[in-house]
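Quick note —
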Amino acid sequence: MVIDKIALVLAIIGALNWGGVGLFGFDTVAFLCGGQMAALSRIIYALVGLAGLWCITMLFQRNEERRTHVA
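Predicted structure written out below.
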């Protein structure tokens, strides 16, 4: 499904951002969007969080269901 791919991309972006924060103390989203409290940064953080929640549902999909959605 398209939403699964979008969620995975957003979750990967979030993971890379948190990796940058943890390893280098650098928040790429905040840097690009004008700080952690900027409206755009908060929207991106919220979308990444929602994507992470959506990815949890993917853990419980059966293999047959995944194959039927992949095209």
